[in-house]
Write a structure and sequence with these properties.
Elements (H helix, E strand, L loop, with lengths): L5 H4 L9 H6 L4 H28 L2 H17 L3 H15 L3 H28 L1
Helix pairs in contact: 3-4, 3-6, 4-5, 5-6
């Protein structure tokens, strides 16, 4: 078991969405809004699929889904979600479903923060 240390999942110090990424996309707001809209519309299903894979103990599917979400989150600067996915992926590689369960709760919390940020961004821009 790899176990979880508070340091491993402590992502509070990071921004929800990387400000450097937002700055780099400042002149491409319509594209950014589309990316956020797609993330908001598609990722809840992936989160449910991750939860289902965890519940059924399908470690390989869980690892693959976490890896996919990690890439999507990294693409749009959602670093805290990306970090959670990396930790979840590592727990899967170690076969540590106990840690994966705790990480899943943290991932869902970070996704709520990301959705809130994105909804606010869409409303303001």
């Amino acid at each position: 078991m790899i176990g979880i240390s508070p340091k491993a999942v402590d992502t509070v110090e990071k921004e929800i969405v990387d400000s450097k990424f937002l700055e780099s996309m400042a002149d491409r707001r319509p594209f950014m809004k589309r990316m956020f809209t797609v993330f908001i519309s598609q990722e809840p299903k992936r989160i449910q699929n991750i939860r289902d894979a965890l519940t059924s103990g399908d470690v390989e599917k869980l690892r693959h889904l976490a890896h996919s979400l990690k890439g999507g989150a990294a693409t749009i600067g959602v670093e805290r979600v990306r970090d959670c996915c990396l930790q979840l992926e590592n727990a899967c590689r170690a076969g540590d479903l106990h840690s994966a369960l705790a990480l899943m709760d943290h991932l869902e919390e970070e996704m709520r923060h990301a959705y809130e940020f994105m909804f606010n961004y869409l409303a303001e821009h």
